[in-house]
Amino acid sequence: MFGSLLRTETGRLAQLVICAEIIQASERDDIHARLRPYAEGLVTELLAPQ
Fold first, then answer.
1. How far apart are CA 23 and CA 49, in angstroms?
2. pLDDT tens across 22-50, in order?
3. Which of 22, 31, 33 minimizes the C-alpha distance to 14?
4. SS3 label, residue 28
């Protein structure tokens, strides 16, 4: 449903912002710590050359 929006430049930027928030919060609580590896993986995908 939102796939086409998330593939835009703005959508990729939004995903990077959320990943950054998850990574920062992972230092403070267990839920975000468990999400951190997925966020880091997504960052790698998002920053890979298109």
1. 22
2. 999 999 999 999 999 999 999 999 999 87
3. 22
4. coil
